[in-house]
């Protein structure tokens, strides 16, 4: 086009072309431009078609838009509800596309078990997410989002053994949780019966347990810097799991464009800085007289393996794993406890029955102990129902196929993103008598004994099962019983009644903000 205009100017200046020939000249240029435009449109559509081609026997799914796929057909404020509709329409194995990312949604316990347990290695990989590429440059892949292979296996083994060394499954951890429960209950008592939002206090309590294991320290409930850190974490998880995070993963080129997604990178950097400062303090005092926490244990292993060129014990991996453990250990327990208190104020009859059992088995003065759980079937059932109905990880963390495989008769190529729809197991109408109601009876038999249906998989399953499952179970029982032993929770007068069906989706599904009051028993 530029050349044509230059040629026109030269022709006019030399008298070669008359003004009367202008229309024909521009018609020629326009025709040439139209042909080029048509070529690029056809090329783009053919390219898009080639990217969307599926192998034979691929799972069924809805037709998507060119280039965008099905990304606009999912409500990213509650994707599990969108996936539930697809499950009803297309069956247990559903294919969708987000941009050009081939994705398969697994529904129902039978399908999830076959993929995550029976064929665990086939489905053990992780996709590469554009939303995490910037933080991975600073921290490495950590452990949650690391690709499946020797590095991941080495770090998972180390993390599990180190967590056990620092109290997981031991009395020392119970004592630590019960001590933190005292601080938490003091916060509730300080409210003096007035309405308050328990979110920040519960966040602080849950994070202090994992902080004591990873960092060797806890943070005061009035520590403003730590509150900011927890705020950045919550905000980042919401953005990463929401629409803008999914859009960025589907179209990585928008990374450098302005928009709400830029807040993700800003928050990630602030989180890294916080962890880096703690690691630096450990390095300044290295070597310690004794191994105090996870960071010390990692640094010791790093020193031991420093001559191994294939080692995964690198400083970047320490930062990534520390962030992963902290985020998982804080958000999951804190969110579940928020659901717990919400369900208790909405179901005061359930709260009363839990308190009766606590009084009968533990009493009002003795501290709860994990061993009490076996004698408290109703309380145990209530905690499990909180996890089921709260549904804090409705679609888990995406997997990726490690090799070509099959699931329920369908062919799934290597590199396909897999979404384990845990909600489909937790709300299956064929398993739970009243799946959309809060009903502790789901976990009790006719004699009132505790039963755990195998479809109950809030922590996922298989090789990528939640690393902190045992820690979370311990925390939930001890925090929950400690709170209800000391207080009765109720709704404030003259305030709207919270609706537990309304929730906020990020990486986790959390209740909308609510306020409650406490009364000392």
TrEMBL record:
Residues annotated as transmembrane: 33-50
Protein's UniProt keywords contain Transferase: no
CDD domains: CYP2
UniProt keywords, alphabetically: Heme, Iron, Membrane, Metal-binding, Monooxygenase, Oxidoreductase, Transmembrane, Transmembrane helix
Cofactors: heme
A UniProt-annotated Pfam family: p450
Residues annotated to bind heme: 466
One CC-aspect GO term: cytoplasm
GO BP terms, alphabetized: arachidonate metabolic process; xenobiotic metabolic process
Main localization (coarse): membrane
A GO MF term: oxidoreductase activity, acting on paired donors, with incorporation or reduction of molecular oxygen, reduced flavin or flavoprotein as one donor, and incorporation of one atom of oxygen
Subcellular location: Membrane
Chain segments annotated as coiled-coil in the UniProt record: none
Family to which this protein belongs: Belongs to the cytochrome P450 family.
Cited PANTHER family: CYTOCHROME P450 2D6-RELATED, CYTOCHROME P450 508A4-RELATED
Name used for this protein in its record: Cytochrome P450
Provenance organism: Chiloscyllium punctatum
């Amino acid at each position: 086009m530029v050349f044509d205009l230059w040629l026109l100017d030269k022709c006019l200046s030399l008298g070669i072309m008359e003004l009367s020939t202008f229309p024909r000249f521009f018609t020629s240029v326009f025709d040439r431009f139209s042909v080029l435009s048509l070529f690029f449109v056809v090329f783009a559509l053919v390219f898009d078609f080639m990217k969307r081609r599926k192998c034979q026997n691929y799972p069924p799914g809805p037709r998507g838009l060119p280039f965008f796929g099905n990304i606009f057909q999912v409500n990213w404020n509650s994707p599990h509800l969108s996936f539930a509709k697809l499950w009803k329409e297309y069956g247990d194995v559903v294919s969708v596309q987000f941009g050009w990312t081939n994705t398969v949604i697994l529904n129902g316990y039978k399908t999830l078990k076959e993929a995550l347990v029976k064929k665990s290695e086939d489905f053990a990989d992780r996709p590469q997410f554009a939303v995490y590429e910037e933080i991975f440059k600073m921290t490495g892949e950590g452990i949650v989002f690391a690709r499946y292979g020797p590095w991941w296996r080495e770090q998972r083994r180390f993390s599990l053994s180190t967590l056990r060394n620092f109290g997981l499954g031991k009395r020392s951890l119970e004592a630590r949780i019960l001590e933190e429960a005292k601080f938490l209950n003091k916060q509730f008592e300080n409210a003096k019966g007035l309405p308050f939002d328990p979110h920040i206090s519960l966040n602080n309590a849950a994070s202090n347990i994992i902080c004591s294991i990873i960092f060797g320290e806890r943070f005061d409930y009035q520590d403003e810097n730590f509150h900011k850190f927890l705020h950045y974490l919550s905000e980042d998880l919401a953005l990463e799991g929401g629409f803008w995070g999914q859009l960025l993963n589907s179209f990585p080129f928008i990374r450098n464009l302005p928009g709400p997604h830029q807040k993700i990178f800003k928050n990630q950097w602030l989180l890294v800085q916080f962890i880096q400062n703690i690691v630096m303090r450990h390095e300044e005092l290295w070597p310690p007289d004794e191994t105090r926490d996870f960071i010390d244990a990692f640094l010791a292993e790093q020193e031991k393996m420093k001559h191994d060129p294939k080692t995964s014990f690198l400083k970047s991996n320490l930062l990534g794993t520390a962030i992963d453990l902290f985020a998982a250990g804080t958000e999951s327990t804190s969110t579940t406890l928020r659901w717990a208190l919400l369900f208790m104020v909405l179901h005061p009859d359930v709260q009363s029955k839990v308190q009766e059992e606590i009084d009968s088995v533990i009493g009002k003065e003795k501290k709860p102990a994990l061993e009490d759980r076996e004698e408290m079937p109703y309380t145990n059932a209530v905690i499990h129902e909180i996890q089921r109905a709260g549904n804090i990880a409705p679609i888990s963390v995406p997997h990726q196929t490690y090799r070509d495989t099959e699931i329920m008769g369908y062919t799934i190529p290597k590199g396909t993103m897999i979404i384990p729809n845990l909600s489909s197991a937790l709300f299956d109408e064929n398993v739970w008598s009243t799946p959309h109601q809060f009903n502790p009876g789901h976990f009790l038999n006719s004699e009132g004994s505790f039963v755990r249906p195998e479809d109950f998989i809030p922590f996922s399953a298989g090789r990528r099962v939640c690393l902190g499952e045992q820690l979370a179970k311990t925390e939930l029982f001890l925090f929950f019983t400690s709170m209800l032993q000391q207080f009765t929770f109720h709704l404030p007068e003259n305030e709207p009644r919270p609706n537990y069906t309304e929730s906020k989706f990020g990486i986790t599904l959390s209740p909308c903000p609510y306020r409650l009051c406490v009364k000392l028993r």
